[in-house]
Predict the structure.
Amino acid sequence: MTENTPEEVTGPEAITRVKELVEDIDITMLTTQDAAGNLVSRPMSTRHMDENGDIWFFTLDDSKKVDQSESDRDVGLSYADAKGYRFVSVAGRAETVHDRSKMDELYTPSLDVWFESGLDTPGIALLKVTPCECEFWEPRHGKLVTAAGMLKSLVTKDSPDDTMRHGTVSC
């Protein structure tokens, strides 16, 4: 069996690609730690990744995720596009933000499902995640070529050839 490593991407190219993937995949699993030390995850819709690299979400002040992220600011974000073979992992620090102008900038009517009075919903807030470490994986040559390479590896019992790009960013 041959051993292959994915193409490594770092620096500005990796930062740009992480932003594109995070905003395109949208839904992430936000992982926090509860009082008993258990890891707890829930889906969140990404509003934006700004020029500083901060990732923004809407939430309510009285939610468990806010309590948990204030108790231990270390959080994880896991983005997965299984059909496209695209994945992003973010380790970061969370902070609850009450900035009305930032809320005005990021709010869209689709959020009315969760916030019945829109930006006037009592307790509405932003959750800002500042990344510390980011990684991504995606097909190097498109998902069809990747799928063909994986099928070939099943038949030959070899590792897939040159199929994935892997990027890392330390912030």
